[in-house]
Amino acid sequence: xxxxxxxxxxxxxxxxxxxxxxxxKVEKGTVQRWHKLGLPxxxxxxxxxxxxxxxxxxxxxxxxxxxxxxxxxxxxCMHCHAPKRSVRGCVQIVxxxxxxxxxxxxxxxxxxxCGTKISRLVTNKTPEVLEAMKQYQSGNKxxxxxxxx
Length: 149
Ligand SMILES: [Zn+2]
What we know:
This protein is of the alpha+beta class and 149 residues long. The protein has helices at 17-24, 28-36, 52-66, 127-134, 144-148, and strands spanning 14-15, 50-51, 75-77, 82-84, 92-99, 102-110, 117-123.
């Protein structure tokens, strides 16, 4: 993911599309897209002007949203653009490459929301992920907690 140099934006300065694009080293069209997606422009300005402070806030929030840490039993679904669990019984764990002292595994599943094939690469560096995913390999609906009881 491209990291925008948000720190280069001055809070009290106002920017045109062009200036903003040049400051952040992005295409003008990217700034136009941000505007469509919610970056507010100063009211009554034409060509549109953006206040540095609002640009900073917008981009920081956007960055936060992109950082979606996955739970041990979640995949990042490319269709839903969100962390999703797999339909039970659809998870497959296939050993992949050996990476130094770690074994890589490709885990595939089916998004429980949209049915798209989802996959995740893990190594035995994170055994909790492998353990959690194993619970989804069978169609058994019992959760980990229920198994312990
Ligand atoms: Zn999905």
